[in-house]
C-alpha cells in the first residue's frame, strides 16, 4: 500500500503538529454540535454558514500537510461562494458532494485521525519518557535497580519499532485524508472539459494573431521590397538601350533590394521557428539568445532529452518574451534562466534583479505567455514584489524524446 517511506522523526513531527491543532478542532466540534442540536429550530442550518468556510480552510491546511508528507498534491473540495443569502447558500452546499466530504474529513480528524497522529508522536515521546524515568530512578535510588533496567530495556525495544514503523500511522492518516477529499470524477471531468475549451479558444486566437503578424511582416517588409524590385527591373529594361549607365544603377539597386527582401523573409522565418532552435535545441537556443542581450544573463540548464517540437517552440518563445520584458521594463543589471525537467515536466524559470512590480493583468506580454503555455496544459507563476527580484516560473507537461534520435542541445 505504501510505496515511499518517510523518516520516522518526520512522521513524529507531523503527528505533533496535528496534536497542536486540537484547539481549533474542538472549536469546530462545538459549532457542529450546536448546528445539529438546533437543526429542528432551523437555526442550526444558519450556523453552518458560519463554520463551513473556516472548516474548508482548516481542511486545506491539513491537506497541505498531508500532501507534503505524501509527496503529492491533496486537493480540497471548494465550497460555492455564498452570494444569495445564508439559507440558500447552505441548502446549495447540502446538495454538493464537496460539503459532505469536508464533513466526513472533520469526523475522521476528530476521531481516528487524532488517534493516529497521537500514536505517531507517542512512540518517540514514550522512548524519551522511559529513558528519563529510568535515569531518574537510578540516580535517586528511589526504586530497585531492576526497575530502571526494565524501563531501559523497554525503551531500547521501542527504538527499532519506532524506527521501522514510525511512519506507518501518519501514512495511514494522510492516505485516508487523501481518499476522503478525493475530487468528484464528474466534477473533475467537467473542469477538465472547461479548461480544454478555454485553452482551445485561446490557442485559436493566438494562432490567428500569429498569422496576422506574419502577414503584416511580409506585407510591410518583403512584399514592399519585392514590389520595388519589380519596378526597378522594369525601369532598367526601359533604359537599357537609351541609357545603359542609368540601367546599371537601377540593376544595382534591384540587387540590393533582393538582399534586403531575403533578410526580411529570414526574419519572418526566424519568428516562426528559429533555425538555432531546430539545430541546437532549447538549451542551445536560449544560450545563443542570452549572448545577444545587452545585460548579462546566466543560463543553468539540464534536460534528459529534447521536448516535442511544438512544446520546445512554445517554451523558447516564452523565454524570449520574458527576457524581452526584462530588457525593456525591469531596469535590471543581470538576469538568469533555469531550465530543468522535474517529474516529466519542463520547467523554465526566468528571473532578474530589477525593480519588480510586474503584473500579469496589465499588458499583453505575460498574458500571451500564459496563453501560449496553456495550449499545452502549462502553467505560469509570477513573483514580483516591489523592489524585486522578479521570478517567472513556467511548467509544461512533457514526454522527452530520446537524445540519441534528435539533434544535440549542447552549445558549440
TrEMBL record:
Q: Source organism's superkingdom? A: Bacteria
One Pfam family from the record: HisKA_3
Looking at its record, which EC class is this enzyme? transferase
* Transmembrane regions listed in the UniProt entry: 20-48, 102-134, 146-165
The UniProt keyword set, sorted, is: ATP-binding, Kinase, Membrane, Nucleotide-binding, Phosphoprotein, Transferase, Transmembrane, Transmembrane helix, Two-component regulatory system
Keyword ATP-binding assigned to the entry: answer is: yes
Q: Which residues form the Signal transduction histidine kinase subgroup 3 dimerisation and phosphoacceptor domain?
A: 210-277
What reaction does this enzyme carry out catalytically? ATP + protein L-histidine = ADP + protein N-phospho-L-histidine
* Stored Gene3D superfamilies: 1.20.5.1930, Histidine kinase-like ATPase, C-terminal domain (3.30.565.10)
Q: What is its EC number?
A: 2.7.13.3
Q: What's the name of the protein? A: histidine kinase
Biological source species: Nostocoides veronense
Q: What is the lineage of its organism?
A: Bacteria, Bacillati, Actinomycetota, Actinomycetes, Micrococcales
Amino acid at each position: 500500500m505504501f510505496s515511499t517511506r518517510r523518516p520516522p522523526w518526520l512522521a513524529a513531527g507531523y503527528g505533533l503538529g496535528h496534536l497542536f491543532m486540537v484547539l481549533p478542532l474542538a472549536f469546530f466540534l462545538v459549532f457542529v454540535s450546536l448546528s445539529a442540536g438546533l437543526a429542528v429550530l432551523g437555526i442550526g442550518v444558519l450556523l453552518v454558514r458560519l463554520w463551513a468556510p473556516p472548516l474548508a480552510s482548516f481542511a486545506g491546511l491539513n491537506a497541505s500537510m498531508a500532501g507534503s508528507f505524501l509527496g503529492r498534491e491533496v486537493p480540497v473540495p471548494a465550497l460555492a461562494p455564498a452570494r444569495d443569502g445564508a439559507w440558500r447558500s447552505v441548502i446549495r452546499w447540502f446538495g454538493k458532494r464537496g460539503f459532505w466530504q469536508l464533513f466526513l474529513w472533520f469526523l475522521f480528524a476528530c476521531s481516528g485521525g487524532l488517534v493516529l497522529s497521537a500514536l505517531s508522536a507517542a512512540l518517540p515521546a514514550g522512548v524519551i519518557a522511559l529513558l528519563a524515568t529510568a535515569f531518574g530512578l537510578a540516580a535517586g535510588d528511589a526504586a530497585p535497580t531492576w526497575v530502571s533496567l526494565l524501563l531501559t530495556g523497554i525503551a531500547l525495544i521501542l527504538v527499532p519499532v519506532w524506527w521501522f514503523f514510525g511512519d506507518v500511522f501518519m501514512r495511514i492518516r494522510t492516505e485516508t485524508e487523501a481518499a476522503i477529499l478525493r475530487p468528484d470524477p464528474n466534477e473533475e471531468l467537467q473542469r477538465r472539459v472547461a479548461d480544454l475549451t478555454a485553452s482551445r479558444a485561446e490557442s485559436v486566437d493566438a494562432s490567428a494573431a500569429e498569422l496576422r503578424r506574419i502577414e503584416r511582416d511580409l506585407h510591410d517588409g518583403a512584399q514592399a521590397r519585392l514590389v520595388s524590385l519589380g519596378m526597378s527591373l522594369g525601369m532598367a529594361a526601359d533604359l537599357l538601350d537609351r541609357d545603359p549607365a542609368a540601367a546599371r544603377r537601377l540593376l544595382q539597386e534591384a540587387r540590393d533590394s533582393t538582399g534586403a527582401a531575403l533578410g526580411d523573409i529570414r526574419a519572418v522565418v526566424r519568428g516562426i521557428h528559429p533555425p538555432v532552435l531546430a539545430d541546437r535545441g532549447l538549451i542551445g537556443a536560449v544560450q545563443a539568445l542570452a549572448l545577444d542581450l545587452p545585460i548579462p544573463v546566466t543560463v543553468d540548464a539540464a534536460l534528459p532529452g529534447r521536448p516535442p517540437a511544438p512544446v520546445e517552440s512554445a517554451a523558447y518563445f516564452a523565454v524570449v518574451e520574458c527576457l524581452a520584458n526584462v530588457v525593456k521594463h525591469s531596469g535590471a543589471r543581470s538576469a538568469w534562466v533555469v531550465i530543468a525537467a522535474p517529474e516529466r515536466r519542463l520547467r523554465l524559470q526566468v528571473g532578474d534583479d530589477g525593480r519588480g512590480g510586474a503584473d500579469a493583468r496589465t499588458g499583453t506580454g505575460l498574458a500571451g505567455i500564459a496563453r501560449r503555455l496553456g495550449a499545452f496544459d502549462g502553467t505560469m507563476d509570477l513573483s514580483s514584489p516591489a523592489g524585486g527580484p522578479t521570478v517567472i516560473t513556467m511548467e509544461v507537461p512533457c514526454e522527452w524524446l530520446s537524445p540519441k534520435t534528435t539533434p544535440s542541445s549542447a552549445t558549440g
